[in-house]
UniProtKB/TrEMBL annotation, chain A:
The chain crosses the membrane at residues 39-58, 92-113, 140-162, 182-203, 210-227, 305-328. Keywords: Membrane, Transmembrane, Transmembrane helix. This is Uncharacterized protein.
From TrEMBL, chain B:
PROSITE patterns: ABC_TRANSPORTER_1 (PS00211), ABC_TRANSPORTER_2 (PS50893). This is ABC transporter ATP-binding protein. Gene3D superfamilies: P-loop containing nucleotide triphosphate hydrolases. SMART domains: AAA.
Automatic annotation (TrEMBL), chain C:
Residues 12-80 form the HTH gntR-type domain. CDD domains: WHTH_GntR. PROSITE patterns: HTH_GNTR (PS50949). It comes from Streptomyces griseoruber. This is GntR family transcriptional regulator. Gene3D superfamilies: Winged helix-like DNA-binding domain superfamily/Winged helix DNA-binding domain.
């Protein structure tokens, strides 16, 4: 058409093609603003848990020690040490820390991705200067950084509270709160983020995505907890018939049983051998029991198991992330 | 050859195997600087077409070119407003515009957005959540216009607006086109809404492009003819109208026999017999005739040039 | 400055309305030589019509030698349109004819139809797409596809 009335503006075009670096920062700021509520909530939760840990490790722990000492000094026979505020507090916070991934999965599947897919605001972003892939990168990277930093900090505080007060802790180094003192805790939240994002992009509606993401990550954590003892080779300790096999005090016993002609049989019912020593001896001989065994993880397996679990979680995270990128790339131009 | 704002060849999009084709065999060329109406009934494929052009969907087959490149590469230079005007409900208007500035660095013209928002007497501190449909449309248009796009894709832009806002925003869009040569593509199922503002037409029906070209050319390529001679009686049934000796040479889009009167909308391919009265169809008549007759041959880019040469 | 009023139901092509209203403004002296026409942007902002329609109208006015486009400045009126002065013989004759028409019992609409028909017969219709001429039964050009832009679109 007429050139006079339609002067083509060339300047912005070349500026846009140069891809200004301001775009990334702008995207980061946008993501932070959009999810400000979630960010504030998460920060408060992390600060609150850290505060509780610090209080537990200092005030509560010292009080408890003072009580125990007073009890000792008084020479009482029974000091009530079964109910420990410190130990139960640590257990509870450990669970919070471990299962925080459920909240992350819900957030990622719901408001981070799913809601944007449903109400079209994802499309709104994709038709600004941002490509869908860059949008996804911002949506994943910003929460990933926040989650990694905050969870790492929380784990470090938790470890500090734990290490300084082991004398007050009666529970084992394994158990439900196992990941709370190592990198697995961080891996869990990152995995939840990736799985949530995948569910959001796949299902494109927040509620189903939220449900699918929390269910999937919970199932993953359930399976990992169930098979955690298989993540690293166990140590077996045996003993002759005269005594129980030796286990270190902090060992995590996985299995135990009788040795029948040297072979471990976990479910042999040798308890029916009753009576005097000789009778029992004969009964056991009849059964072929030559000793007892116990398989366990010594505390030195803590880190290998942590790292294997972390590795599995990060692999799932990587697969979910690859899948979500593949999906977004395939669906859009 | 003029620059092309949009071009498609054999373009098709299918959502899942069971749901069939939303759009198929689409071919058209839209020169830059035009204001193009994408018209068609609901569900015809208008939104799919605009989403493909905006790079929100990948075509199942064929290609679509936008501003001389693929939609993904043109993203920064294309503005798009979806039918439901999605905006983040938790942001205020000012924050929404700031987001636009963040996501369009180097292109953003804040004053353009603020002017459009101010024309609607909207307080920038209000949250999107609290806005009416028409007010959201205004903010969405402000967002799309402030990035100074070279191509603006608007899906049913005027649906939620009252007549006053419609006129004012359409004026703002036309002013944008006049000042910056922006190509504007807007869809609607209400022809009258776009008739004055558009000079180019893409008529979409049942997932196909039925008409594509300059509105003036399309109107000129068609004629309404009528006769009261025996031709009408000879025709008897409307199906045979196309076979009438007088009409055989032309493309009959639609025909109707009422009593002794025969009327038809045709694409003439030469002189008509003298006893035929002719008149020019209106745009609405043309569009309705094509939509009512899905089997009538479509008129898309390859065709109009030879017809009008 | 002239302000265009677009009547979408008039059946007259939009650009023809602009041409006609500009000419009317020239006749009435609202626009005088040297005056600037509103820019396409100003027109479309107020009327929400397509900018190319305005440009087409301005090209038509330019082709008729009424206005000229000065690059970068705008479109300016080159000459006014001569109206037959109020006391010209032509006007007197028309006046007498109108009186006779009224006396024979014709009403306003009859006279307008008659006048339009005669007008059609002696003057070329204002350049518009086929069918926009108001009188439908008036003799039409031979029935064949007319070129889209009678004045030749430069694009």
């Amino acid at each position: 058409m007429t050139a006079v009335a339609h002067p083509r503006t060339g300047a912005p075009q070349s500026a846009a093609e140069a891809l200004p670096s301001g775009a990334s920062w702008g995207t980061v700021r946008t993501v932070l603003r959009l999810h400000r509520t979630a960010l504030v909530f998460w920060t408060l939760a992390v600060a609150c848990l850290s505060g509780c840990l610090v209080r537990l490790a200092t005030v509560t722990a010292d009080d408890e020690r003072a009580t125990l000492e007073a009890c000792d000094r008084a020479g009482q026979d029974f000091c009530d040490t079964t109910v420990s505020d410190f130990a139960s507090g640590m257990g509870l916070i450990g669970l919070f820390l471990v299962y925080s991934f459920l909240a992350v999965a819900a957030f990622a599947g719901g408001s981070l991705i799913g809601r944007e897919m449903e109400n079209g605001t994802a499309h709104l972003a994709w038709t600004q200067g941002i490509s869908p892939v860059r949008w996804l990168t911002a949506k994943l990277a910003v929460p990933a950084l926040v989650l990694t930093a905050s969870t790492t900090a929380l784990v470090l505080v938790y470890r500090w509270a734990w290490d300084g007060n082991r004398d007050l802790l009666s529970f084992e180094w394994v158990g439900e709160a196992f990941p709370s003192r190592g990198p697995a805790a961080v891996a869990y939240v990152l995995c939840a983020l990736a799985v949530g994002a995948l569910a959001g992009v796949l299902l494109r509606r927040p509620l189903p995505a939220l449900g699918a993401a929390t269910a999937t990550t919970w199932a993953l954590s359930f399976v990992l907890t169930l098979y955690r003892d298989h993540l690293w080779p166990t140590v077996t300790s045996t003993s002759p018939t005269s005594g129980d096999p030796y286990l270190p005090g902090t060992a995590w016993q996985v299995a135990s049983g009788a040795l029948v002609h040297g072979r471990p049989v976990p479910d042999l019912d040798y308890s029916r051998c009753e009576g005097g020593d000789a009778e029992i001896r004969r009964c056991l001989d009849d059964l072929g029991v030559t000793g007892y065994y116990a398989t366990y993880h010594p505390e030195s397996h803590y880190w290998p198991i942590q790292l294997v679990e972390t590795g599995i979680l990060l692999t799932v995270t990587a697969l979910a992330t690859a899948a979500v990128y593949w999906l977004v790339r395939r669906r859009t131009a | 050859m003029t620059d092309l704002a949009m071009a498609a060849t054999a373009l098709g999009k299918r959502f899942g195997r069971r749901r069939g084709w939303a759009l198929r065999d689409c071919a058209f060329r839209l020169p830059a600087g035009r204001v193009c109406a994408v018209v068609g009934p609901n569900g015809a494929g208008k939104s799919t077409l605009l989403s493909l052009a905006a790079g929100l969907l990948a075509p199942t087959e064929g290609t679509i070119t936008v501003l001389g490149t693929d939609p993904a590469s043109a993203r920064a230079r294309v503005g798009y407003v979806a039918q439901d005007k999605p905006l983040h409900p938790q942001l205020t208007i000012a924050e929404t515009l700031r987001m636009g500035a963040h996501l369009n660095p180097g292109r953003w013209e804040a004053t353009a957005a603020e002017r459009i928002v101010a024309a609607g007497e909207l307080d920038p501190r209000r949250r999107i959540r609290a806005l009416s449909g028409g007010q959201r449309t205004r903010v969405a248009l402000a967002l799309a216009l402030a990035k100074r796009p070279e191509l603006l894709l608007l899906d049913e832009p005027m649906a939620d607006l009252d007549p006053l806002a419609r006129h004012e925003l359409m004026g703002a869009l036309m002013s944008q086109a006049a000042q910056h040569g922006t190509t504007i593509v807007m869809s609607s199922h209400v022809v009258a809404e776009l008739e004055d503002s558009c000079d180019h037409l893409l008529l979409v029906g049942r997932g196909r492009i039925r008409l594509a070209g300059e509105i003036d050319d399309l109107l000129a390529a068609h004629t309404r003819v009528s006769t009261t001679t025996q031709a009408a009686e000879r025709a008897g049934a409307a199906e045979a109208v196309a076979e009438l000796p007088d009409l055989r040479a032309h493309t009959v889009v639609e025909s109707r026999v009422t009593g002794r009167q025969l009327t038809a909308l045709i694409r003439p391919a030469g002189r008509l017999a003298d006893d035929w009265r002719t008149s020019a169809p209106s745009l609405e008549e043309l569009i309705l005739a094509y939509l009512r007759n899905p089997e009538a041959a479509s008129l898309t880019p390859a065709a109009p040039e030879e017809a009008l040469a | 400055m002239v302000e265009y009023r677009i009547d979408r139901h008039s059946g007259v092509a939009t650009y023809v309305q602009i041409v006609q209203q500009t000419k009317q403004a020239l006749r009435l002296g609202v626009l005088r030589p040297g005056d600037k026409l509103p820019t396409a942007r100003e027109v479309v902002e107020a009327t929400a019509i397509n900018p190319n329609t305005v440009l087409k109208a301005y090209r038509e006015l330019e082709r008729e030698g009424l206005v000229e486009a000065r690059r970068g400045l705008g479109t300016f009126v080159r000459r006014g349109l001569s109206t037959a002065p109020a006391d010209s013989p032509l006007r007197t004759e028309l006046d007498a004819w109108a009186v006779r028409a009224r006396d024979t019992g014709l009403d306003r609409e009859d006279v307008a139809a008659l006048f339009t028909a005669v007008l059609e017969e002696h003057f070329a219709p204002p350049g518009g797409p086929p069918g926009t001429s108001p009188a439908a039964p008036a003799p039409r050009p031979p029935a064949h596809a007319e070129p889209a832009h009678p004045q030749g679109d430069p694009s």
